[in-house]
Specification:
Strand content: 25-35%
Number of helices: 2
Strand order of the largest sheet: 1-4-3-2
Largest sheet: 4 strands, mixed
Length: about 120
């Protein structure tokens, strides 16, 4: 018997409504405001991503394992990498690692507008 049930992932950021809007552009869904410091994106399929204001926020460095390492990243399954890449870049993503070894690796790495790494993945 499990101890707990998964609820959501929360991302620290300097501007919760702006980052929620970025991920709504990527995943769809509805944004709900709890207060000025907490917004939640309810995506199709029942999953949630929350965005929490962090004063003095500093984005992680990717890829590193020392004092400012990434602590978490998100993986998203896509069908067409070229189309998906163009769309996330238009929304404000930054490329971090686009060398997918001519499609053999199956993912590319980006940062959201405040620096959280995420991957676009395909089979």
């Amino acid at each position: 018997m499990p101890i707990a049930e998964y609820r959501l992932v929360a991302l620290d950021c300097p501007d919760p409504p702006a980052l929620a809007a970025f991920y709504a552009g990527v995943l769809g869904g509805d944004i709900k405001q709890y207060n000025d410091d907490w917004y939640t994106l309810h995506v199709p399929g029942g999953h949630q991503i929350a965005f929490q204001r962090a004063h003095g926020y500093r984005p992680p460095d990717w890829p590193r394992a020392d004092e400012n390492s990434q602590q978490v990243h998100l993986d998203f399954t896509i069908q067409d990498i070229e189309a998906a890449e163009a769309q996330v870049l238009a929304l404000g993503a930054t490329p971090l690692d686009l060398d997918d070894e001519n499609g053999r690796r199956g993912w590319r790495v980006y940062a959201d507008p405040v620096g959280h790494p995420f991957c676009l993945c395909w089979d």
